[in-house]
Amino acid sequence: MTGTEQPRTWPHTLSLVASGLLGAAAGCLAISLASHARASCDAGADPGGRTELTLLLPVLVFGFAFCGVMVALLTPRGHPLLRMVPVVLALGALVLWFFAVRGTLDGYPGDSGLCGPDNVPPWWPGWLPS
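Above: the chain sequence. Below: its structure as tokens.
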């Protein structure tokens, strides 16, 4: 330990573990949203699109978990629950970004008749970016 570093306490360690678990859950949520959007619009729901999302699942779970832990580490120490606020905001932004980039395949020919040319499903709230 150097100079002004504080030792890790159990609430600090618990918040890091919770951030990692929350990140893993956010990765699963991102894949689930993309899968449901593709199935609703019948765009990218072919075997190639399903394989793509299946192969991305472990990458997103570990990647989002890593991002959650890194945000928690970079957040100033304070109450453990307050440290989770930036983690939740960052992971929420990542889920929205993944949905917009890989969930709604803009211009992909979908033939379900439910979605427009941007392939945003009708159940997606209009006030959220896509």
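The first helix runs from residue 10 to 41.
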